[in-house]
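Thanks for the sequence, V.! I ran HugZ family protein right away. Repeating your input here for the record:
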Amino acid sequence: MTAHLPRLGQALHQLLCARRTGALGSLNASGGAPSVSLVPFAVDPLGDGAPVIVLHLSGLAAHTANLQADPRASLLVSAPEVAGSPVHDLPRVTLDALARTPAPDSPAQRSAHAAYVQRFPEAAFMAELGDFRFVTLRPTGARQIAGFGSARSVGAEELAQVLALGTPTPPINPA
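Predicted structure:
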């Protein structure tokens, strides 16, 4: 971890490294009602000129059509609940972002593919399926809750610093 990130920036990076799924919020393409779905995510520190969150979405999924109609999105990433601990203390972040689908075989698409498969090697075969595509989320801001009584807004510049560190795949603990 780099020392130049503030303590809460380090906590945000640790959360993004530890969690592999988030709740993707998009606006329903037929009416604008909010829609939320669970998605795996990776971070591409190289991105398309800036670090981005990478999703691998089916063209058949409602959230894909939603993001094509309106690129505004949110991604909620939360620490897991711990039995006996207060849920109000869970570290979490809601990233506000703009979605984009990189052109096939573009440098941005190849970079997104590499970042996603590095984090999810078991999903490499899905990159070959015709109805799936990589979608990148460029964060524009965030609201971070680092624990009870520790909430703050995070600007795009600090988010870029955090995401530039990438998200190495954490070891999976057999349960």
